[in-house]
Amino acid sequence: MKKTFFKFSLMVFAILATIGCNKQQTAENVIFLIGDGMGLGAISQLLLYEEEPTAIEEGFVIGLSETRSANNFVTDSPAGGTALATGTRTNNGYLGVDPEGKQLTSLLKKAQAKGKKSGIVVNTVLTEATPGAFYAGVKKRAEVYKIAEQFLDSGVDLAIGSGLSAFINRPDSVDLTQKLIEKGYDVILDWPTILATDSQKYIGILPEAGVHRRNKSKDITAKGGDGAPVCIAAKMAAESDDNFNDNLDINEPEKYMPKALTKALETLSNNNGKGFFLMVESAIIDGYGHNNDSYGLLDEMQEFNETVKVVKAFAQSHPNTLLVITADHETGGVGVSYRVSPENMKDTVKVVFSTTGHTGTVVPVFALGPGAEKFDCIMKNIDIPAKISEIAGL
Predict the structure, then answer these.
(1) Of 10, 205, 250, 328, which is most buried with the most CB atoms under 10 A?
(2) Quick one: how many helices (H) and strands (E) in the chain?
(3) pLDDT digit string (tens) for 240-298?
(4) Pseudo-torsion of CA 75, 77, 78, 81, nearest 10°?
(5) pTM to 2 decimal places
(6) Cα–Cα distance between 320 and 75 in angstroms, integer?
(7) Rounded distance, CA 231 to CA 240, Å?
(8) Interhelix angle 256-268/294-317, nearest 10 degrees
């Protein structure tokens, strides 16, 4: 009798443990932060320069990911973004489609099918390769006008970034912002209105200068760009660049991502317990890698650290949130340079570059929240969305 009772007790314990484990693995919210071009060298530069602990140093499960595309050991951004968005490798140059050109289903679309809210926040144009991989499908990333058209059917509850020209300065003369309004979106072209809106469905399209900083030491544009708005959508008035600069201190553009994310998370959290999926791209790391600019790269990694602080704080205060941080690829072949004179240790950490292009070097993966332990390994880029889907039930 005692033996039977003991076996029964073990069986009950096993069932309860399984239930508890499954419950622990479920994530209601997902925040997927992609540092474009962010490899181990860029991370090393940040860690060595900052005297205080960075946001990525504590609380995360850490893994590594290789980043190849379907037809090359070194991926480009469209294929890299597609792998992270859909869990399928595609050819370099392809965006949101498989090597045969078939449309793929992204994490964002899967989340929407489960009734979750969804959003995109980037410090580049909304039609760029990485955000585009979550809603579009083209064989050439240069098809920005087509990508903008496909954005109309993205189904997102909110998006914040730049890139107005692709929506209004079009060869077909169609005003896509008006089409968005017809779909029920509030289309907002100035920063104060974004911060003040109580809309649950809005698209914020800001001037490029408001979403990322240009390098102070070199006259370059790190990535993306649409220029200032040159025409306005029906029923809306765009702010001029000068007025915009007054509303957001352009000398401190690092304020953009933390404020945009805080606003987005506030909006997405209001979903009656169904949760949300938020895709975030810190895009400009890639540009400084391409330009072999160590000072710009350090500045951008410091801004990335501020971005991580915001999403990490949210995830820690909302235990049902899975936060995953990684990169689509590494750019520049970044390594920390050797210092001959020890007295220079307190100077800015400089790095060396082996290329102006992308590399096939593995990139870091940081995970926090329910199911984070699944990322404690070396994985393929396509494994990351598969793990997210499993943990979030997508």
Answers:
(1) 328
(2) 15, 14
(3) 222 223 333 334 555 889 999 999 999 999 877 899 999 999 999 999 999 999 988 99
(4) 90
(5) 0.85
(6) 33
(7) 10
(8) 20
